Amino acid sequence: MSFSSEFLFAAATLGVTFFAIWYVWSLLWGAVPFTAKAHQRKEQKLVLGAAQTFILSYEDLPAYRDGGEFAARMGDLRTALAAKDVAACKSLLEFLDPPKSWAAGREWLDILVVSISVAMAFRAYFYEPFNIPTGSMQPTLYGNHSVSCSPGEADFFDKTPLKWFKWLLTGEMYEHFQAPFAGTLQFRPTNTGHYDMRVVNGLTDRVSKQMLVPTDVLHPHETGDGPYRQQALALPNGLTHGSPVRAGQSLWSGKVVTGDFLFVNRWLWNFRHPRRGDVMIFSTTGIQGLQQGTHYIKRMTGTPGETLTVKDGHLVVDGKMPMEPLRIRQIQNREKWHEKEYPYAGYRPSERPDYVMPGRTIASEGDLVKLGPDEYYACGDNSPSSYDSRYWGPVPAANLRGIAGGVFWPIWNHRWGPIE
Fold it and tell me: Is residue 107 part of a domain?
């Protein structure tokens, strides 16, 4: 598309004319930014507005109504406001409402308190951030995990300061943990999907700084022989809890990947009932067999009044295999939800005879669970590695906190966005 020179000239003339009219109008009314007249007009508006607000706020108080100096000054303020006398209004306001000390600090404190209150209310009633701590929901959602590698395998972006930029995008941070001094190695589990690894020297009472390694870094390792054989958690290099280490010894190197961060939708269930397939966040308080005072995330597989079991790797509800919604069908059929992920493993019983509560858990195929009128069944998408209702039973309705809305960090991965 092309325009004639006559058209372009007419358009330019019209534009210049409109700009000139706007500029002249702005000068007349003091609307041109950063001019003295604009500043004067702004101050007039603020002062007159403050005077009107003060009169409406305090005119009913006895001190400003029943005679005396303050009542007289209030009358003068009304007269000055009616006449739009900015100087008189400003002088009277300084007498009636003198400036407070640290006014700017008070204003910022008010803003801070209001902001915190709004944020807390937003979190309590609408959306709350939540971090996936473990891999029980893989491959749908990833918890804190690791990728072991040698220091030589670290690339250019794994070095400071670029590794922080890489972490902001991918949640991945290269770490190389070394013993700061000679001592023994100690591990302590946390509720964030990590082990707190430290070096302790009992002779000097020295304790190293915290070194957080994801739980999947440590693998079961057999120690002892015959009746003394037992399982111990070991690093890939064979170091276990209590192993002696020397100063500078490499303990573990690899990439620590932060679990997905998502928003918990707190309001949706106020408008509809929880459904099968919802990724549910619930409190563990009062549920026997779980760490108290924390929150779990699982997929809702059973709703009130239903009878559940597991058969041939499939979830069976009221004698039928549910195939809706999409994720339930993909888990049932052992499909991939994304080309970059491995297939789901289906549903399995816990196969743990030490976790048997008749009518509550699914330890073997054929075990039936009948849910009460306010009970829900919670199973992880990663059935072989999920500690869920198959072990400890249903979740009471009172423990439900919300539904997983969407992953907001890390940004650079295919799981970012709404969760199905």
Answer: no
